[in-house]
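Researcher: Quick one. two chains, 1126 residues in total.
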Amino acid sequence: MTSNPTIGHPTRRLDAVVVGAGFGGMCMVHRLRQMELSVVGIEAGGDVGGVWYWNRYPGARCDLMCIDYSYGFSHEIEQEWTWPEQFAHQRDILAYANFVADKLDLRRDFQFNTRVTGAVWDNTRSLWTIRTESGETLEATYLVMASGPLSVPRENEFEGLTAFRGELYRTGRWPQHDVTYVGKRVGVIGTGSTGIQVVSAVAEEAAELHVFQRTPSFSMPMRNADITPEYAAEIKRHYPAMRAAARNSLVGGVRPSITRPFFSLPPDQRKDLMEDSWKRGGHAFLGTFSDLMTNPEANEQVAEFVRGKISDVVKDPLTAEKLKPRGYPIFARRPCLDTNYYESFNLPHVHLVDCNEEPIERLTEGGVKTRAREIELDVLILATGYDGLTGAMLAFDIVGRNGARLRDKWRDGPRSYLGLAMAGFPNLFMMCGANGPSALANIITLNEQNGDWICDVIAHMGRAGLNTVEATVQAEDDWMETVRSLAKLTLMSKASTWYTGTNVEGKARGLTMYAGGYRPYRETCEAMIRDGYRGLAFESAVTKPSQWPSGLDQRSPAADATR
Amino acid sequence: MNRQPLKPPETDSVGVPRRLDVLVVGQGFGGMYMLHRARGMGLRVLAIEAGDDVGGTWYWNRYPGARCDVMSIDYCYSFSNEIMQEWTWSEQFAAQSEIWSYAKWVADKLDLRRDITFKTRATVLAYDTARQLWSVTTDRGDVFEVTYLVMATGPLSIPKGLDVPGGTRFKGEIYLSGRWPHHPVEFGGKRVGLIGTGSTGVQITPVVAEQAGQLVVFQRTPSFTLPMRNRPLDTDFVAQIKEHYPELRALARNTTTGGVRATSTRPVFSVPVAERERLMEDAWAHSGLAFFGLFSDPLVNQKANDVVAEFVRRKIRQTVDDPATAEALTPRGYPIFARRICLDTNYYEAFNRDNVMLVDCLQEPILEITERGVRTQAREIELDIIIAATGYDGLTGAMTAVDITGTQGRSLREKWSGGAHSHLGLMLAGFPNLFMIAGANGPSALANYLILNEQNADWICDCIAFMRAHGHSTVEPTAEAENAYMDLVNMIASRSLMPKANTWYTGTNIPGKPRFFPLYAGGLNKYLELCRDTAAAGYSGFRFSGPAEPRGQREPSPGQSQT
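Model:
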């Protein structure tokens, strides 16, 4: 067994292949290497960072606080890195990813600018055969898909995409070079988390800005703040305790969540709390009431409060009215945190195009043709979202036991056990999978937990001399039943979003993420391990002892750390 | 072994044992609901109560200023929507008189009194192994023979009393807060001494200060107290609560405390200093209870605890005019919230009155009660009235006050010589068919008793129903299950700062009582889950036995092998 590519040889034999060099893939490669497994990471981009590598669009920023959205596994990394702002800019997050990659010397085991084109399970040899775009073949005992929930931008969503003669940019595939808007007529299609960030950033520079809105989002003020040296020092002093608190929370972060239901308070106090949260910004709103995602009445009252705020901010009543989201619960579509989004519409050169009234028909040479008119543009920015959660898993063909294809298995939506493993797809693990808490939790915390779990299972297999692992059909069915019954309890199912798959034509619908919260999820994962890896079926390696890598029985110290 | 027929004839004749299915000891909120439930199951059940009416702690504690520190909308029954709809609370935090009225109203509504014998104390409880029943002797000479014995005797039922020598010598009036007379006490123009500054003393001080000629507060351990900011509940708010009561109660059951008061997941040091100060100032100004909704970690992180404690110490300095008095009132040397936090109305403010004097017993300990008043190490203080608010033999006092003997002649006092030890706070190995409500090893004082009482009684009734369905006649936890549960209790306690203070939680307020923190500090919701899972797993950790029939006639039952 070797981790060194043999020059000229078409096939490399590895213990593990990790797909993706975002925060999930990075920590996975690191952890597997700590276990002394031979591992190669495959990444389509030119460097580490995943979603933060691709999304360089103006205004790109994380909607989680940086003190949460960062690795917790290494005290050294926590101490050495200093975040400048409460909500970090994309370039800082990408710099952080690079800092971590340097520090852990990760790049030597990553192959960049490489896309996987297919993965096939070889039942006789109990390994995955992975082919890349460049024609290379890798063989690996384990395949870890760390390909992320937001990696495949939607495409071909408009007629005439190639006809447009101006500059066309996709937010999720933003060029590395600078883009200028001065004196230009700019159009932005899409008003989700991305569009909202783009609008505020471009509004000041552009000569004209047309915002094409299909579904209005609820957006709340981010009120980003610099992190003072004193605060940074205090955070660093208390990082371990904060990470522990985060792991015990429903979201995997220290942002407040609270147990107070909406109707336990008198109206005046509720109003005060909402006003105060609006003033404080950030995640303050999520710390006001406990039942916003379960009680439609409470939800509607908060939604109405935010609609009122839109009216307060936007001077033109007609524009304000169009910007107000209706017909779905607030927080069911991912809530946006903005910096002067609604305020932008008070600028004379910023125009809202309500696509409910005048749908986009096609792109033209000169701009965008709606049902009512043609709008001429020099620059068009598509912030039209992603084939979320499942897109990257289905981007290439994954063929499991007996020729079963993942695309068939997931025809009616993704299904797996804990979002981590699947029946019929042995030795394949997913990080931040579509049936775990995924986008409902802090994805970095989740990635680390997923990575630990995967390493725990692999170490167990090494100790027990086991060859293959997969979820039992029963465990997968039971888990999906849990996922479904929780989805029924939350209002999140009630909006058309990438959470529910309704933004992509022909995609199966329904909330497939585990909505029970990060902590219960983590505890469930821990409990099944404690109960002897309940729900997983193993095959013994007795028949194929030669397949076993040597370092497998060594558990790394990190795997034993209490998390 | 002597085997008796299972059902001796029922009788009311004096001295002749009365045969019952269930005897409930205590008619506070726990016992009342237990009686109601057991009766609903068609069991022959009676209750005995030492007081001459229902209400338990709210029957006895009629001292001036007595008030519950849990919100009224939480501190009431949740099992009957009818009761929730018909009763209306007048204040956010209810006064003793209102809570007692509520208890009496419920007793009327459920017609409980017909099955309650008042002014009756159980004195000897002995298990008859051969006949599989409990023999209960009362101070009035009744003897009951019962299959199931339910101790609903409460955590704060046995006042510690005046723990200073010379009480009988005093020529004035002496009152115990926990045995307050039913007639009004006149303080007008009198010199009143108050010994004790726990939750009770803190409530008494401002009320008596306004009436008395002079009030001398003897303080041994200063308490942290937060402003209650009680307010009347207006009609609209009450209507809103009633409309949403069932869902609010369901949400409350799913919290760590069992109430709708806010608890937060935000750790202290995740919030910048200025923001922390603002949050605490805001809570101080509006509601002491809001402090629980600010931060998640004051009870697990000493440094986080210091931040909140220091804020309150500063508030004491700001409130109390005389710096020496302020300093003496300032608690030090134990974590805030480790001693039960008090919620007060003008406690610290009372020390700015000319007629109120603080005696710091750390500087001048009380030596004795004299004919004329209290003698400290420094002086004799003349008094007309002495109020002893000296606390309780908490959590275990009411259980060890009675002579309880289980199997093999083992007494409970012996079993608990090292501190309370039981399974789930519900049952005791070696004491078959004896159930406790709000037992010392459950969440007890850390949770809302009303919710805990209901769940405990429901669990007990379910267990009895299970036994009847399976033909079991006795149940008790295995020693292993009990030990494992107590290990869990200890493990959770070891992570909390709560065991670090000398309080009735740790038993250190009673001379000779072993220092032991017996409470389950993992949160009410987790506790309920544990109890539910135990029952769902066929009462794992419990041993059942069949009826005491002659050998050879006993048939094995399905649950018999379950341990």
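The two ends of chain B are 24 Å apart (CA to CA).
Researcher: Thanks, that's what I needed.
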